[in-house]
């Protein structure tokens, strides 16, 4: 699901809800093959036979506590295709079944993992299960700083409050029953 607007005579994607470390922060002109630098990195759209791809050029990453990040997804390619879409208009009803599946299916990542993420002024932080990942974009010399820690149960409440401004009425019990890493 994304939102396209036309300003003047130029089309822009203004909200893609792409999430993770691939989230664009500013509207992007919908033009194929043009690099569009933003704080999280350099993005571009590529169009092939009516199918559009959102790509992000990878920056180097510095992970000071590399041993903690055994499942951290460190892609080796220079450019990562994030999403594909067409410009065919859709009705919100067309998304209801997929949204219900993502919220309830036993194999959905949103069921088998507890996920909390937040964009910060200079990066993104995410708590997936017990794994806290904080990314500071362009920390130095075109390199992102990636800090990863595995939290103990007793650190959860404090971390949710201090890092995400979340206070829960009940004890939070993290879930992570999938081997797939999101951050």
From TrEMBL:
What Gene3D superfamilies does its record include?
A: 3.30.2140.20
Q: Recorded E.C. number(s)?
A: 2.3.1.5
Q: Which Pfam families does this one have?
A: Acetyltransf_2 (PF00797)
InterPro entries with a match to the protein in the record: Arylamine_N-AcTrfase, Arylamine_NAT_domain_sf, Papain-like_cys_pep_sf
* Keywords (A to Z) from UniProt: Acyltransferase, Transferase
An example molecular function term from Gene Ontology annotations:
arylamine N-acetyltransferase activity
Which family does this protein fall into? Belongs to the arylamine N-acetyltransferase family.
Name of the molecule in the record: arylamine N-acetyltransferase
Q: Which gene encodes it?
A: Ary2_1
Q: Which residue ranges does UniProt annotate as crossing the membrane?
A: none
